[in-house]
Design brief:
By secondary structure, the chain is mainly alpha-helical. Helices cover 77% and strands 0% of the residues. The chain has two domains: 156 residues; 27 residues. Helix 1 runs parallel beside helix 3, helix 2 runs antiparallel to helix 3 and helix 3 packs antiparallel against helix 4.
């Protein structure tokens, strides 16, 4: 299920970004994003195959490993996150529809998180309760993504104008609040 969600996030995120660029008239960027999305889909499909239990803990360069090494999977999903976030930011600067850019960035973020979860579950000990870990992670991920979409939708629909100082203060408060939430979740 995690693999399916990860691949769907990659496909939908790349499609949303490409559609936003296409609507803005930047066809070359839209095609490049679709190509990158297809490349990421193929790469994640290849490297999201389960690592056999007998090979867990072996070096990532071991020729017997079916996943090509967890290092490749980790850097490629991180590259996908950086590319989608940069493309979404550039699209917003170029005036592309913000809804599509936000959906594309969210798709990249979800794909990165799900690929990392799959990698970590593949390295888990046989005594770990994988179904509980998976369920809790997906619940928090869904709540976080839903809250983020709700807040960004509200921000797009309700025009508010702040001074620069207030904007900086609110951004710092949001970052500190997120840091506190993450530390609280790690302890709990």
């Amino acid at each position: 299920m995690i693999r399916t969600l990860c691949l769907a996030s990659i496909g939908l995120g790349a499609a949303a970004l490409a559609w936003g660029y296409w609507q803005n008239g930047v066809v070359a960027a839209a095609l490049a994003l679709l190509l990158f999305g297809a490349l990421e889909l193929v790469a994640q499909w290849r490297w999201l195959q389960p690592v056999p239990r007998r090979l867990v803990g072996t070096p990532s360069f071991c020729p017997e490993r079916s996943d090509g090494g967890t290092g490749v999977r980790a850097w490629f999903s991180a590259l996908g996150l950086v590319v989608t976030a940069a493309a979404a930011a550039a699209g917003l600067i170029l005036g592309a529809p913000s809804g599509w850019m936000i959906a594309g960035a969210l798709g990249g973020l979800l794909a990165w998180d799900l690929a990392d979860l799959d990698r970590r579950l593949g390295l888990a000990d046989s005594t770990d309760d994988l179904s509980t870990i998976r369920r809790r992670h997906l619940t928090w991920l869904g709540l976080t993504a839903g809250t983020g979409l709700l807040l960004t939708s509200a921000a797009m629909l309700i025009p508010l104008h702040f001074s620069f100082a207030l904007t900086v203060f609110l951004a710092l408060a949001a970052v500190l609040g997120m840091a506190r939430l993450v530390s609280w979740l790690h302890r709990g």
